[in-house]
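Record type: monomer structure entry
Structure origin: computed from sequence
Chain ID: A
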Amino acid sequence: MAIYQGIGRSANTPEIMKPVIRQIVALELTELRNYRLACIAFFLSRRDKVFDLINTEEQRRFVQISSYYLVEGQQLATKPYSQLYSYTLLLIGGLLRFRTRDPFAFIPDACGLGRELNGALKKLWRVWREYLASTKPWS
């Protein structure tokens, strides 16, 4: 199913992007895999047209996906930095690009979705601090 990753990298028309977005949004969190997460992350981080295609519910779903894979999904990885984690960060970066359309999008004090995303990032920071405390990176 690596075709999703390729679609994410190359698709640039609403006729291609919208059905793919709908299909991925409909999946359960546990059904998402690297290639599907990559597809959405590439759409959001590379294509300005995508912002016209995504409604508030889909934005909410992307925040859920990001939150899940930042924290709970992190336990699925064999090490803190994995491909899944990398695509999740790219997805968050893409979500923050919504600010090109709405300057208050995903700001914790101005938006419920921003508060949710901020909460997930704070949880991630705690996980990273624990991980770093348990390792000796320079030995």
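Annotation 1: The mean pLDDT is 87.
Annotation 2: The chain has six helices and no strands.
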